[in-house]
Design goal:
Catalyzes the oxidation of glucose 6-phosphate to 6-phosphogluconolactone. It catalyses: D-glucose 6-phosphate + NADP(+) = 6-phospho-D-glucono-1,5-lactone + NADPH + H(+). InterPro entries: G6P_DH, G6P_DH_AS, G6P_DH_C, G6P_DH_NAD-bd, NAD(P)-bd_dom_sf. Keywords: Carbohydrate metabolism, Glucose metabolism, NADP, Oxidoreductase. This protein is an alpha/beta fold. It has two domains: about 10-145, Rossmann fold, CATH 3.40.50.720; about 180-480, Dihydrodipicolinate Reductase, domain 2 (2-Layer Sandwich), CATH 3.30.360.10. The protein has 16 helices and 15 strands. Strands 14-13-12-11-7-10-9-8-15 form a nine-stranded mixed beta sheet, with helices on both faces. Strands 3-2-1-4-5-6 form a six-stranded parallel beta sheet, with helices on both faces. The mean pLDDT is about 90.
């Protein structure tokens, strides 16, 4: 199978915070990969902007090093790298002042797509939006890309939306969540809405429960001070896991259109029931003392440099969507750091057949499960029951119908663009389907805020859990009391 690469129109992309970690690790290497693939036209220009006083040539050297470090060697072509670097420019800009804005305006060309990527702290979103308009750099067709966190509660999200709306139309604002750029996430919509096989079964009558897991093996590390002000609920559940939940639970949109898709996602968020304290488990990873077989590891309290921290590095929730399609079907969400393995997956567990025609000992079969793997090894897996080969009666065994992109699509399947690559190209095309709308962000915070306020008012402390485990024991009980089990997190 040969994948099609459709070039985009010539553009000017200004990256604010271009010397920062995200730009150097993801955005600039991703743009090179799109150039190498033939999607980014040679007439395109990428203008780095940051506080650092730096000549354009010095910035190009930074980009060259970022490509060497973060791009697979098989994609690095010396001629392509040099041609790509010719597209790169740099302007020192003071986001809070007036320095550099006139120079930036001179570099942005008329008659092409203009996009401005705010790879900066949220406190700078407003000043950047204001100055882009004050200096006449952004026109009515310009697009701005803003990174999470988009607020830390409903009030701050509303204030940020209002600030951006004062300078840009909603159709110009691209709130980026890189999870929505993953190939498998988009394939989830194709599986649901392009095949008659699943959609008739995609409801409470046939689905027993849904598990959404995002597990990480790393701790908070150097982000400890920042992370301690957010925690897993704000950092992961309110955005990433919420988006995955919406794609699973949403109704079919009337058309694959940005607003049609986002309308249905907002309906899901607004249908979420309040979560009982009994259906929430929070945890913090503990430290490990040195031994003959294991090196010492700091715990969350050490990493956050806050010995009295009540911020969670792990959270599990049982959630219900109060509508006709999903009434009574629980959605179990969990995410955490320093767990046993690195995995992001959605598992839809279907109900058992209503009656067994086979021997009594075979009546308690494992359920059919559709697993969508986001990482690692993106793909889908459907577990079904078949007869075990051989004589001696009807013995049933569960086997996977497995589709990994690498195996199903051959070499093309291994060359899956990074989420940031796809999303930036969607910005250039003007396609907002995979970006969050303002009312969607606010609806998510309106559901999240009471949950956070509840445990803060109760003074709840997170449960301690061992690094390399599956999380706190209480999270296991969250499932066990319902007669269910979490899927194993593999190393």
């Amino acid at each position: 199978m040969v994948s099609r690469v459709i070039p985009v129109d010539p553009f000017d992309l200004v990256i604010f915070g271009a010397t920062g970690d995200l730009a150097q690790r993801k955005i600039l290497p991703g743009l090179y990969r799109r150039f190498h693939a033939g999607q980014m036209p040679q007439g395109a220009r990428i203008i780095g902007a940051a506080r650092s006083a730096m000549e354009p040539e010095a910035f190009r050297e930074q980009v060259r090093k970022a490509i060497a470090e973060f791009v697979d060697r098989s994609k690095i072509d010396a001629k392509d790298v040099e041609t790509f670097l010719e597209c790169i420019d740099y302007v020192p800009v003071d986001a809070m002042g007036e320095g550099g804005w006139a120079e930036l305006k001179d570099k942005v060309q008329d008659g092409r797509v203009h996009a401005f990527y705010f790879s900066v702290a949220p406190s700078l979103f407003g000043p950047l939006a204001e100055r882009l308009n004050e200096h006449g750099i952004a026109d009515s067709e310009a697009r701005i890309v803003v990174e999470k966190p988009f607020g830390r509660d409903l009030a701050s999200a509303k204030a940020l939306n209002a600030t951006l709306a004062a300078h840009f139309e909603e159709s110009q604002i691209y709130r980026i969540d890189h999870y929505l750029g993953k190939e498998t996430v988009q394939n989830l919509m194709a599986v649901r809405f392009a095949n008659i096989l699943f959609e008739p079964l995609w409801n409470a009558q046939y689905v027993d429960h849904v598990q959404i897991t995002v597990a990480e093996t790393v701790g908070v590390g150097g982000r400890g001070a920042y992370y301690d002000k957010s925690g897993a609920m704000r950092d992961m559940v309110q955005n990433h896991l919420m988006q995955l939940l919406c794609l699973i639970a949403m109704e079919p949109p009337y058309h694959f259109d940005p607003d049609a898709v986002r309308d249905e996602k907002v309906k899901v968020i607004r249908a979420l029931q309040p979560v009982s304290p009994a259906d929430i488990v929070r945890g913090q990873y503990a430290g490990v003392k040195a031994s003959e077989t294991r090196a010492a590891q700091p715990g969350y309290l050490e990493d956050s440099e806050n010995p009295d921290s009540r911020t969670e590095s792990y959270i599990a929730l049982k959630v219900h969507v109060a509508n006709w399609r999903w009434q009574g079907t629980p959605f179990y969400l969990r995410t955490g750091k320093k767990l046993r393995g690195r995995a992001s997956e959605i598992a839809i567990t279907f109900k058992a057949p209503p009656h067994s025609i086979f021997d009594e000992e075979d009546a308690s079969w494992p359920e059919n499960v559709l697993v969508i793997r986001l990482q690692p090894n993106e793909g889908m897996n459907l577990k079904v029951m078949i007869k075990e080969p051989g004589p001696g009666g009807m013995r049933l065994v569960q086997v996977p119908l497995d589709m990994s992109f690498a195996e199903a699509l051959g070499e093309e399947g291994t060359d899956i663009p990074d989420a940031y690559e796809r999303l930036i190209m969607d910005v250039i095309r003007g396609n907002q389907t995979l970006f969050m709308r303002g009312d969607e962000v606010e609806a998510a915070w309106a559901w999240t805020d009471p949950i956070i306020a509840g445990w803060e008012a109760r003074g709840d402390r997170p449960r301690s859990y061992d690094p390399g485990s599956s999380g706190p024991e209480d999270a296991l009980m969250l499932m066990h009391r319902d007669g269910r089990r979490w899927r194993e997190i593999r190393e």
